[in-house]
Amino acid sequence: MNFTNKIIIVLNLALVILLSGCEKEYKEITIQQELISNIEKLNREVIDFGMIAEESNDEKLIQQAFKTTRLSYKKMEWAVEYFTPDPARFINGPALDELEVAENTFIPPNGFQVIEELIFPNYSIENKAELIRKIKILSGNLKQIKEHLSVITISNAHILDASKMELNRILALGITGFDSPIAFHSIPEAKKSLASIGNLISKMNFKSPESVQCEKEIKALINQAGNYCDSNADFKTFDRAHFIKSFLNPISKKLVAFQKTNKIEKTSRNNVVNPYAATIFEKNAFDVNAFIPSKEYQYSKEKAELGQKLFYENSFSDSKTRSCSSCHIPEKAFTDGLKTNQSLNGGNLSRNTPTLAYASLQNAQFWDMRQLDLEKQSLDVIQNKDEMHGNVANAIQILNKDREYQKLFKKAFPNSKKIEEWQVQNSLASYIRSLNAFDSRFDEYMRGESNDFTDDEKLGFNIFAGKAKCATCHFIPLFNGTVPPNYQKTEQEVIGTPSDKNGKKISPDLGRYLQYEMPQLKNAFKTPSLRNVAVTAPYMHNGVYSTLEEVVDFYNKGGGTGLGIQIDNQTLPTDKLELTEKEMKALVAFMKTLTDKGISPKL
After folding, report:
1. CATH for 289-433, among 3.40.50.360, 1.10.1740.10, 3.30.420.130, 1.10.760.10?
2. Which of 24, 398, 569, 588 ranks highest by number of CB atoms within 10 Å?
3. What string of DSSP letters covers 476-510?
4. Cellular location of this protein (predicted)?
5. What average pLDDT is seen over the chain?
6. What is the pTM of this model?
């Protein structure tokens, strides 16, 4: 073998070794490895953002650095929110104090939304020191999250569940402007979040023909949605109805199909949303058992049937003349149609009677949120001296003598030998848990069961979920204050409701402050559901407004502050919405589509 041939052999061997080394070097990284790499990259961008904030006062440069970093965050939002929900609150949570009411303490907000308020719509050099400080805190929080995500186990079940939750987060919080309330960068950010879902599905590496086809369809829909975002990036004109029906809902259905095709088990991380519901708008999407105090309180049809009879039972009141149905009238969507109801002594109660429909899908009851569940809610009303002034134990003595009640209790609680107070409470609560019809024209439109939606109603939905910012407090699809996609917390707001229609003074009712004397809670009230809102007038905790038009006008002006009332802790944005007459009418038209077909349910 001559020298030239030896050289060729050596070179070929070196090339093989080099190529083998390259194969190892470029081996596909895992989802977890990519996630950690993305967090490291984001933190470098945040540090660079901090340097720009220190060295420059250029508004556009600072704002662009912010947009870049939050777009990078959107790539990993699925994991940060899913695996580290508590610290995630200080990465991209609302710019409001985090209240620990039981301890009478609060934690100041941190993260992207706080920074956004410092630099949008305009940047003032007066905010420079605070901006730099908040950026450093953000960097520190990202380091903590990286440490946590580095040591956890991420299964296919977690990835699929997190993907579906991220899709629902995009729908309820992303495209509505919840996490970009001032910069209005929501649409490009939604595109980035959607792309992360497509990447996750690809990296799961299921190889069956059915799975490959499903993956291909998911990625095609995500690409189409991204293109739509590129072509319609303006926040105020973005067609959310079209986007949800044409992209988000179909992607949701494909994710569920992908889960079933690959037999990916469900997780118990989020027990509120049915993991096999095709979309978040399905009738079976929400599980009322996720809001019960403990396992023995689980819903059953037998309990609900008993509860329906107890709902009309007068023996719970001291006078034997008042039942639950006296104030929550089924034909009026379980309200009473009054500004405020009458007390037992003939005077007026201080608050409007809220609907019981959909009341089971929240983590707090009453306007002031003083009870956490429906069981405690019923007992509170029965014992209240102004409402029923009754005693459950005394009522049970009457129920025990009724053969029909005896049979119904035995069916509902077959292992019990006697009627107990908790069973009465649980039965009443179970009836209320049956009052979630999800059969309004809006529901049918979103599920594709009907196209019975006018142009005005569609415009109204887009105004609701966009320009008017209604959906940043009344979250889609429940339209109450229970925060998606985890649904573990129900919010209160300070909107500055006036004492009368003249709008000169705030309502004297201090709301949640009466339970927890924290300044942030003065005049704070639970965000109620807007389902059936067209038939539940009057409105607000004190029934001050008689029509939806009056309510829309109040919000359009900026709440109580917009009326000229001095409110230091108003959580509702105080800027005017600048809705046109057409937009306000469309908004009302949309809210009327939230009325259930039949107010009294069929059990």
Report:
1. 1.10.760.10
2. 588
3. TTTTBSBPTTT---B-EE----BSSTT-SSB-S--
4. Cell envelope
5. 93
6. 0.93
